[in-house]
Design a protein that fits this description.
single chain; mainly alpha; 1% strand; globular; binds 4-fluoro-L-phenylalanine
């Protein structure tokens, strides 16, 4: 039943794992939460967390996949010591990916819509922009379902191609394209006066703005942005060639992810400060505030809007692929399904739940999908952020830190890291990461 997994090339892996990590979290969420929590100090906590905890966990997740060479459940089972095979159930974290996809794919659908309105005409004032977003968000269930379906189909087609011809090939094209667009936008924005203000806003920390909620959000976001605790990175790492250096690959992915978030933030805030717009408007930042600015710029604005939303779609779709692949690989490997059946069934499941998520925010239906004052959309997002991803993170840290034999871990990393870095990394995985994640989950549940 356990077929050999096709292997990534080295660059194919780094780009695909970067594709997994860089997503809506970088271009949509990071800028808006940075705005809401006041800029510099928040960014600093985020950077420190990525470096101290995020990157360590990312590497730990890679260790499991690379050594196991199987689907997530199979990988845990394969490498756990004989008396700890029950750890295979930790591999079920792979289903979190499908849970995320029920709303992530809906948001990708919104981006498709904004690509479309970049062609037909962007809203020109605040009221207009709010109405446009609201009309989509609350009053166009059918349209949202169709757009969600586009995203589901795109992801399914890529997954049908498998690791090499589907995932690797798509990322080899799309990630350089994404980088090219973002760097182009950055070069354009550097000439603005608003750019200097954006740099100040993002990098001059004002610690008076830092409260405990901001810290919790920064830590939580650092997991989400690196795709930790969902089995995506583990599944990709299972398709790594034997002698790959996962330390280097992991650091590269963390670096690219952070770089792209910072570039996206700088671009968005430069436009905002140059043309007037508040940074702290929350989730509507890119869907409400930015389109008005693009509209003001005439033809060039239309072109910028188009490439900007295209970049967002690319970022979202390459992450989406990584969210579904763990389930597909699991169904193939554990249940012996053909890839085609595995792709169709997993896509069908999150498509259908995604439709319910759309109803949960749509006028006329939402009362049927609201529980305890929260829409299904909010509930799923909240359970992922505050429960499922931290749980996945803690399980990975404890498994690699305490269950997995130390010589296996050393075998993967020591030669590449050197003794000093290895000791720091191991300490972080055993103590800092689990404590930080539990602190995060505890605080999130209190809110
Ligand atoms: N890291 C992605 C983002 O920042 O949008 C989201 C994500 C992708 C989370 C894949 C988890 C995952 F496994």
């Amino acid at each position: 039943m356990n077929q050999q997994i096709a292997k990534f090339s080295r660059i194919g892996f780094v780009l695909s794992a970067t594709g997994a990590a860089v997503g809506l979290g970088n271009i949509w969420k990071f800028p808006y939460i940075t705005g809401v929590y006041g800029g510099g100090a928040f960014v600093m906590v985020y950077l420190v967390t990525i470096l101290l905890i995020g990157a360590s966990l990312l590497i730990a997740e890679m260790v499991i996949g690379k050594r196991g060479q199987k689907d997530c459940v199979g990988s845990f089972e394969e490498i756990a010591p004989k008396n700890a095979k029950g750890w295979k159930y930790a591999g079920l974290m792979l289903f979190t990916g499908l849970v995320i996809m029920t709303f992530y794919s809906v948001v990708i659908g919104w981006i498709f819509y904004y690509i479309y309105i970049s062609f037909i005409g962007l809203p020109t004032n605040l009221q207009d922009a709010k109405d446009t977003f609201d009309a989509l968000y609350s009053n166009s269930a059918a349209l949202q379902i169709v757009l969600h379906l586009f995203s589901v189909v795109f992801v399914a087609v890529v997954l049908l191609g498998g690791i090499k011809k589907g995932i690797e090939k798509t990322n080899l094209i799309l990630i350089p394209l994404l980088l090219f667009i973002l760097l182009g936008l950055l070069v354009y924005a550097i000439n603005f006066d608003g750019f200097t203000k954006a740099v100040d806003f993002m990098f001059a920390p004002d610690f008076s703005k830092l409260n405990s909620e901001a810290i919790i959000r920064a830590v939580g976001h650092s997991f989400f942005t690196l795709s930790i605790g969902v089995g995506s990175i583990m599944t990709y790492a299972a398709a790594l060639p034997k002698h790959s250096n996962i330390y280097k690959a992991g650091m590269m992915v963390a670096f690219m992810d952070t770089l792209i978030a910072l570039i996206a933030g700088l671009v968005i805030f430069s436009f905002l400060f140059e043309f007037g717009g508040a940074p702290d408007k929350g989730p509507g930042l890119v869907f409400v505030s930015l389109p008005i600015i693009f509209a003001k710029l005439g033809t060039i604005g239309t072109a910028i809007a188009l490439v900007f939303f295209l970049a967002m779609a690319v970022a979202g779709l390459t992450s989406a692929i990584s969210l579904v692949e763990p389930t597909v690989m699991y169904l193939e490997q554990r249940l012996g399904w053909f890839r085609k059946k595995a792709v169709i069934v997993s896509s069908g499941v999150y498509f259908v739940v995604g439709v319910l998520v759309i109803f949960s925010i749509s006028n006329g239906y939402k009362e049927f999908f609201t529980f305890g004052g929260k829409s299904l959309f909010d509930l799923l997002e909240f359970s992922v952020d505050s429960f499922l991803m931290p749980l996945g993170g803690v399980l990975i840290a404890l498994f690699v830190g305490f269950v997995l034999k130390r010589d296996i871990v050393e075998g993967e990393l020591l030669g590449h890291m050197g003794n000093g870095v290895f000791k720091i990394w191991y300490f972080s995985i055993r103590y800092i990461a689990p404590i930080a994640v539990l602190f995060l989950a505890y605080n999130a549940l209190k809110v």
